[in-house]
Amino acid sequence: MPVIYFLLFSVLLLSSCTVSNEKDLDKTNNSSNTEVIDFDLKFQKISNNDFDNIIQLLESLNQIPSSQRDILVENIKEEALKISKMTWPTKINSNSIKARYNVFFTNVSFLNSQNKLGITNNEELNLIKQINISWNVFVNEIQKTETQISD
Fold first, then answer.
1. What is the DSSP string of 51-75?
2. Structure confidence by residue, pLDDT tens digits, 42-78
3. Which of 11, 16, 46, 128 is 20 to 30 A from 1, comparing alpha carbons?
4. Cβ neighbours of residue 105 closer than 8 Å, sequence gap 6 or more
5. How far is CA 49 from the centre of its chain?
6. pTM, rounded to two decimals
């Protein structure tokens, strides 16, 4: 009789483990890595050609599937790093503009590091929105400075 109880217990234990693993697989498969999220973000343009590449990369965040977004974010970070190391044109080489760029760069770096750790789509969406906001604040500061110089 104890053998029958042992066998019955073993079968129940194995079946419960199988069901649990199937549920975990379903959760993984439901979060589609080919999903394209339309962020509908508007990244303001800068008249300086040095920023064309990064603007194109930022704009592509609106159309790229989530499975490729990690690569895109890595490319954005690399381009942002190049810009931070370049010699900035005199008319936009001010502390206030560079401070706003540093906030943007920090947001990009944070998203890049979080993507490597694994984040949910909602967390990623919030971080991308922060990047959008910090970029537009940076561009607004440039436009404000350019307006003051032309006056």
1. GHHHHHHHHGGGT-BHHHHHHHHHH
2. 788 887 778 999 999 998 888 888 778 889 999 999 9
3. 16
4. 80, 81, 84
5. 24
6. 0.71
